[in-house]
Amino acid sequence: METTLRLPGRVEISRSEHEAILKAIENREGELAASLTRAHITGARQTAIADAKQKSRK
């Protein structure tokens, strides 16, 4: 989390994704909440990997 949230725009993206997950949970849409959670984790992971690769090139 610390790795990705310091990147420009990631706080807003993460907040939006968390809000969508919470809305799905509140609406009792379990499959949607699970799907959104997986997408959120995958996106954060991909962002962290891309950032690490970029840092290693410097």
Q: What characteristic shape results from the CA principal axes? A: elongated
* Count of individual beta strands: 0
**What structural category characterises the helix and strand content?**
mainly alpha
Q: How many independent structural domains?
A: 1
Low-confidence stretches: none
Estimate the mean pLDDT confidence.
Answer: 91
Cα-atom Rg, whole angstroms? 13 Å
User: How many distinct helices?
Assistant: 3
> Helix and strand succession?
HHH
Distance between the termini: 22 Å
Description:
- The chain has 3 helices and no strands.
- The chain has 58 residues and is mainly alpha-helical.
- It has one domain.
- The model has no long low-confidence stretch (mean pLDDT 91).
In short:
The protein has 3 helices and no strands.
Task: Jot down its keywords.
single chain; 58 residues; mainly alpha; elongated
List the helices and strands and how they pair.
Layout: H1 2-5, H2 10-26, H3 30-57
